[in-house]
Amino acid sequence: MTYLGSETSQYGGQPIELYRFARGTHVWTYTTADTPIDFDTETYQPATMRRGDLPMNEERNNANLDIFMDPSLDILLQFVSGATPAPTTLTLMRRHRGEATVVEQAVLFVGQIGLVQFSEGEVHLTCVPIQQSLQRRVPRWLYQTQCNHMLYDVNCTLDPALFTFAGHISAVDGRDITVPEAADKPDGYYNGGFMKDGETFVFIQTHVGTLLNLLATSPSLIVGDDVALTAGCDRSRGVCLTKFDNLENFMGFPYIPDNNPYDKLV
């Protein structure tokens, strides 16, 4: 973990960081400490994450912040089907272990998540400072064939419990997990969905028969574990209709003309 400077407190405590993400009424709180941290009526849970440097000059208010996170963290579930229906904000704070007063709290960064990139082993968040986000207009709805809604959000209206099914892990081979009950659904049913094992969420990339290929694996996934599998969506009109019977809430434009009028110009 990289920190601004190398200062230590007068009490000799080591610096730790608190990450508070919020979208509407949903809040996710994480800390770089190895034990939970209580602050301002909220509990920050230990998480595997790291961040890039922040400038220590006047450019700091205009610099993006790069954060790299464990793919199993709950906050990342909202991004598995694309952009969220509302911005997700981040407040990054630093304190010293053992110091509990607000006066001792230093706010290092306030902004919004601008870009989410998934890769094997970690997820890269690019966070834009609040000063930049207030200076530009960002469209929430796009003229595209795919649905603009996030699966299971308030605009989609679907209840994930209706598309979640129980199973158990019978084999683990890296990111390939065998769940016999997955074969009860047609191939691809869980593509883009997620698997919950205890308190761990993992994204499902592909589903064929009993085999699930995960975006990332975790040491907590072991043979014999009971899991819950939740269906995914490719946000197309066809899947919305035939798989979810939810066409009345589809927010895409599937009939965009694909002919280019400029091709006919002489």
Provide a brief overview of the structure.
The chain is mainly beta and 266 residues long. It has 2 helices and 16 strands.
What does this structure look like?
By secondary structure, this protein is mostly beta strands. The protein folds into two domains: 15-133, Pnp Oxidase, Chain A (Roll), CATH 2.30.110; 160-249, Beta Barrel (Thrombin, subunit H). It contains two helices and 16 strands. The chain has helices at 130-133, 237-242, and strands at residues 15-23, 26-31, 37-39, 42-46, 49-51, 65-69, 89-96, 106-119, 122-129, 164-168, 171-173, 176-178, 194-197, 200-208, 211-214, 226-230. The chain is globular.
List keywords for this structure.
266 residues, mainly beta, Pnp Oxidase, Chain A, nine-stranded mixed β-sheet
Structural class: mainly beta
CATH class identity of the largest domain = Mainly Beta
Could you estimate the helical fraction of the residues in percent?
under 10%
What's the rounded overall pLDDT mean?
A: 83
How many structural units, i.e. domains? 2
Q: Can you write the helix and strand succession as a string? A: EEEEEEEEEHEEEEEEEH
